[in-house]
Design brief:
With 216 residues, this protein is an alpha/beta fold. It has eight helices and eleven strands. The chain has an eleven-stranded mixed beta sheet with strand order 1-8-2-3-7-4-6-5-9-10-11, with helices on both faces. A hairpin with a 6-residue loop joins strand 9 and strand 10. Helix 1 crosses helix 6. The longest helix is centred in the first third of the chain and has 11 residues. It is globular, with a radius of gyration of 16 Å. It starts with a strand and ends with a strand. The relative contact order is 0.24. This is L-threonylcarbamoyladenylate synthase. Its main location: cytoplasm.
């Protein structure tokens, strides 16, 4: 296991391409990542996190253009993506091709899709394979002692000890300050609906759409 700096993102990208897991920081918290088209790598994340199979990993596209190539974006999805990407917003989008959907079972269909800023976005841009990501924590552990996803390297190591996962590269980004989720908007239907609030406020989403967005 290598611990590297954000300047060494190429090492994390090569590890992803080789079927390994990597952990990278975001402004929100640390994320564990795999090749989205590698079912075995994605499955190891589900098992380690004890994450239900119905809760798909996020697909991190390197750019809006790449996202448009693989997914169908309606008018409202295009508006939100143009306004907030790269950023802390994820959109549930339908695949253009059933074959693509079948090759990326870890991210599901519709796919929870984002274009990320910072180190996670750099990883998606550098890697020659699609990147799947999720928070570095055990799923469903909402007890009184549960801190939520890791925001420090020390908490990353606690997560790894609990999950039994062994990433080949950890990118040390220091302390992740926001400790909050991405906002999720369902754009699978023509009229977008809010699934989860997060760092992109509901009022901001409504303003971008020119209407009050309803909850799914």
């Amino acid at each position: 296991m290598q611990i590297v700096t954000p300047q060494d993102i190429d090492l994390a990208a090569r590890a992803i391409e080789s079927g390994e897991l990597v952990i990278v920081p975001t402004s929100r918290w640390y994320m564990i990542c795999a090749d989205a088209s590698n079912a075995q790598a994605c499955d190891s994340i589900f098992k380690g996190k004890r994450r239900p199979g119905a809760k798909s990993l996020a697909y991190v596209a390197p750019s809006l253009a790449s996202c448009q190539e693989h997914f169908k974006l309606g008018a409202e999805a295009e508006r939100l993506a143009t306004m907030f990407w790269p950023g802390d917003l994820a959109l549930l989008l339908p695949w253009r091709s059933p074959e693509d959907a079948a090759r990326h079972t870890g991210v599901g269909s519709p796919a929870l899709t984002t274009v990320a800023p910072g180190v996670l976005g750099a990883l998606a841009s550098e890697a020659k394979v699609p990147v799947a990501a999720t928070t570095a924590n055990i799923s469903g552990d909402a007890g009184p002692a549960d801190l939520g996803p890791a925001v420090t390297i020390e908490e990353v190591h606690d997560f790894l000890a609990a999950s039994g996962l062994t990433p080949s590269v950890i990118v040390d980004g220091g302390v992740c300050p926001a400790a909050n989720h991405m906002t999720i908007v369902d754009c699978f239907t023509p009229e977008a609906k809010l699934v989860r609030t997060g760092l992109v406020h509901q009022r901001a989403v409504s303003a971008a759409l020119g209407r009050e967005i309803k909850r799914a």
